[in-house]
Amino acid sequence: MENKSEKLIAANYEFAKYFFSELKDNFDILAMEGEVLSKDEMGNIIDLSIAAEDCSTEQAGVINILKEKWLSYIEAGSGVSDGLTRVIHYISDLQARYAR
Q1: pTM of the predicted model, to two decimals?
Q2: Tens-place pLDDT, residues 68-99
């Protein structure tokens, strides 16, 4: 299953990287302004962003897979922002691996 998910993410690389890069940029701007979002609040923003972006079913599936990856990073001790950075690196790594 992991391999299938990885290939799906790699196939939607540009969208996924854009989506999570925008989330991270917005999160960092809010943090600079003193607004700190919890993991639950950020998770809700991800869910709302899927609807706002008018994602296809496939794109929404990719974002949900990556949201779970992000949550696993947080549970392993990463902060919200660091977890987003790790997801962006993960997306790039998958794209490089499957682009061959």
Answers
A1: 0.87
A2: 999 999 899 988 889 999 999 999 999 998 87
The pLDDT of residue 40 is above 90 = no
**Which domain does 8 fall in, by range?**
2-98
Task: Tell me how crowded residue 36 is: count the other CB atoms within 10 A of its CB.
Answer: 12
- Tokens 């993410």: give the residue: 9
Query: How far is residue 59 CA from its own chain's centroid?
Result: 11
Nearest in space to 39 (alpha carbons), one of 49, 48, 50, 27: 27
CA angle 8, 14, 19 (to 5 degrees): 95
Q: Count of domains in the chain? A: 1
